[in-house]
Amino acid sequence: MPPKAKVTKEGICEAAAELVRERGAEGLTAKALAGKLHCSTQPIFWVYSNMEEVRQAVREEALKRFGRYLRERQEGASAYLSVGLNYIRFASEEREFFKLLFMSDGWEDILTKHAEMPYVLEVIEQTEHISGKDAQDIYEEMWMLSHGIATMIATGTAQFSQERVRKILHDVYSGLVRNVREEK
Q: Is residue 173 part of a domain?
């Protein structure tokens, strides 16, 4: 009799993440995960207490991937423009992870409490020398714009060229920074 395959926490999380990427968050069930792992559901629950723990592990993995996306520099773009472009690129390339992180219940105030927010504020502070409430306001307004575009892309309700997105983000960001400086 061949030895039984060992199911690891990392393997479960990887398979669960792939299920979410393929089928969306609603496709992550114990039965589907066991099928992906070629085992019964029992080994999953030896490692995780319940499916909510598995979902949380997938959210954490999605957030790590999002963080890597966010920090990539886009050629010919400022650090802050890169953040917005990468947020929208994440929605396009990782649609189901985007929906999981930014379009589902279970996340309190994603606008101001997501794990990458300090990085984004730091970019504004370092590149524009704007801090405090002014940096926070710019961040929130740009996030609302970027999130709207990203949501339309992730749901397939609209398509935008990279050039159009770049121009929209640049124009709005420049206007917000200019308004803050003029108010000082």
A: yes
- The answer to whether the CB of 57 falls within 8 A of the CB of 39 is no
pLDDT digits (tens, 9 = 90+) for 156-178: 999 999 999 999 999 999 999 99
Tell me how far the alpha carbon of residue 160 is from its chain's centroid: 19
Q: Is residue 15 part of a domain?
A: yes
Q: Which residue has the tokens 């598995």?
A: 54
CA distance 44 to 6: 11
What ranges in the chain are assigned the alpha helix state H?
9-23, 30-37, 42-47, 51-71, 79-93, 95-102, 110-113, 117-128, 132-155, 162-183
Number of domains in the chain: 1
Q: Give the separation between CA 19 and CA 120, rounded to whole angstroms.
A: 30
Dist. CA 88–CA 148, nearest whole Å? 9
pTM: predicted TM-score of the whole model, two decimal places = 0.86
Residue 4 clears pLDDT 80, i.e. is over it: no
Give which of 83, 81, 101 is closest to 21, Cα–Cα: 101
Domain of residue 130 covers: 9-183
